[in-house]
Structure formats: C-alpha cells, structure tokens
C-alpha cells in the first residue's frame, strides 16, 4: 500500500515562506479558514493561534502549499496530494540541509527561472557545471537550499 506523505520544512516565518514556495512552484496556499472556525466554535483553539491573511484565517505557526490539481479535504482545507508544510520552530537553521528539492524547469528555462526565483527572494549559492549535470544551487528566503535543474 502506498503511503500518503507531505514534506515538512522547519522555519522561522511559515507565512512568509509559504508565499515564496507557492510562487516558486505554481502551487496554492492552503486555506485553513474552515478548520480554524470549526475548532474555534468547539472551544479547542483560541484567537491568538491564528491570524488573517488575504481574507482567510491562517495558523500563526503552520502554513502549507499544495499542488492545484490535487484534491482537498473540505473539512480542513488541507491538500490530499503533493504538499509542503512549513512549521515554525524556535531554533535557527544551523547547517546545510540533508534533504532538498530539485526544481526541474529544463536547461532552456533555467536562467529565466533562476532570475524569477531571485525576484521572489531566493539567492544563488553555487552554479554547478559537472559531467552529467548543470544546475544552480539556491537558497529560499530563510536559507533552505534547493536546486534548479
């Protein structure tokens, strides 16, 4: 049986990173309004746990993006397919990532996509030209590494 999974990224500011990655990937920011309102009505959460962003309720310490073609659970607003969850942690990033994403745009689009991502707040760390691979190592606005192929 296949396992349903999501990639979780520890960060300082999930609401900022979710906007970066939604634009970077062409994904949608999840809307957790329905879930938050249901939990508020049940008395399970309090007002200080959420904020309002672009007219939707959002958790202060968690935010997610999902692929626009994947299904969504109506009761929670959570994506049921390709999904990245960003969670606030107290400690800053210390070392190089042990896991990273590769964004495959193709060699003909690489340079334009690197520029676009820089415009969103990413930075170029290294250009790699080696036998068998040409790619750009970048960092998102909080320093999490990813590669543009």
UniProtKB/TrEMBL annotation:
Q: Which Pfam families match?
A: Glyoxalase_6 (PF18029)
**InterPro entries reported in the protein's UniProt record:** Glyas_Bleomycin-R_OHBP_Dase, Glyoxalase_6
Q: Taxonomic lineage of this organism?
A: Bacteria, Bacillati, Actinomycetota, Actinomycetes, Kitasatosporales
Organism domain of life = Bacteria
Q: Where is the signal peptide?
A: none
Q: Where is the Glyoxalase-like domain?
A: 7-148
Question: Under what name is this protein listed?
Answer: VOC family protein
Q: Which organism is it from?
A: Streptomyces noboritoensis
Recorded hits in Gene3D superfamilies, A to Z, give: 2,3-Dihydroxybiphenyl 1,2-Dioxygenase, domain 1
């Amino acid at each position: 049986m296949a396992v349903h999974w999501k990639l979780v990224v520890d960060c300082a500011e999930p609401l900022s990173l979710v906007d970066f990655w939604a634009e970077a990937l062409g994904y949608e920011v999840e809307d957790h309004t329905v879930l938050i309102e249901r939990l508020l009505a049940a008395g399970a959460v309090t007002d200080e746990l959420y904020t309002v962003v672009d007219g939707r309720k959002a958790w202060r310490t968690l935010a997610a993006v999902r692929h626009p073609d994947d299904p969504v659970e109506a009761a929670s607003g959570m994506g049921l397919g390709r999904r990245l969850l960003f969670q606030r942690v107290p400690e800053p990033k210390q070392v190089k990532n042990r896991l990273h994403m590769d964004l495959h745009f193709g060699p003909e689009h690489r340079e334009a996509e690197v520029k676009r991502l820089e415009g969103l707040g990413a930075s170029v760390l290294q250009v790699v030209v080696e036998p068998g691979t040409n790619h750009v190592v970048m960092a998102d606005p909080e320093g999490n590494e990813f590669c543009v192929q």
